[in-house]
Write a structure and sequence with these properties.
Layout lengths: L1 H26 L1 E5 L23 E7 L4 E6 L13 E6 L2 E5 L21 E6 L2 E14 L3 E5 L5 E7 L6 E9 L1 H6 L1
């Protein structure tokens, strides 16, 4: 009897410890720098892509709902610049973060990002992989040079730009890979 109680207590302790570890990992957040993202006011920008720049291309972001299709450059490329393109801020396959300007002008690639809604689809070709994401959360965060992202084991694509509603905030669109397959079943 004492032995069964001891085994039960040990198993319960292991279970509760595991739950605490999972909870702690899921509530931790990661901060990604967004200091160079500002609302664009340049209306005369013209971009030319040279043949040499093609070697830096790692993918394409496509969002049919807002008629967006933009090339993504390697994170170390000089073309990975918010004043030229949609910019990759974090390039881990489990957490890709893209940023771009909103507002008037040629480089305001994320100007219509605020039209996205929950369950909308975002496509990303990344290092020759076709990835499909579903919008799972839309939020505004204080614009302080970073965005806070909850850690999880799901593959996510985060899109961010300045808020149209509040100049002190940034729009953060969270999408998840795999949520699409659940919709299709």
């Amino acid at each position: 009897m004492l032995r069964k109680s001891l085994v039960s207590i040990i198993l319960l302790t292991i279970y509760l410890g595991s739950c605490l570890l999972i909870y702690t990992n899921e509530t931790d957040t990661k901060k990604i720098s967004t200091t160079n993202i500002k609302r664009n006011t340049n209306t005369n920008y013209i971009s030319n892509v040279s043949k040499d720049e093609n070697n830096d291309i790692i993918g394409t972001l496509t969002i049919d709902k807002i008629n967006l299709s933009k090339i993504i450059y390697n994170i170390n490329s000089p073309n990975n610049n918010v004043d030229r393109n949609v910019t990759i801020l974090n390039d881990d396959i489990n957490l890709i973060v893209l940023a771009a300007h909103s507002g008037p002008g040629y480089i305001a690639f994320f100007n219509d990002l605020d039209k996205l809604e929950l369950n909308d689809i975002v496509n990303l070709t990344y290092n020759d992989n076709e990835l499909i994401y579903k919008v799972t959360n839309i939020e505004e965060q204080v614009k302080d040079g970073t965005i806070e992202i909850n850690k999880t084991n799901k593959q996510r694509l985060i899109l961010t730009t300045c808020s149209k509603k509040d100049k002190n905030k940034q729009l953060v669109i969270i999408t998840e890979k795999g949520a699409v397959e659940k919709l299709n079943n």
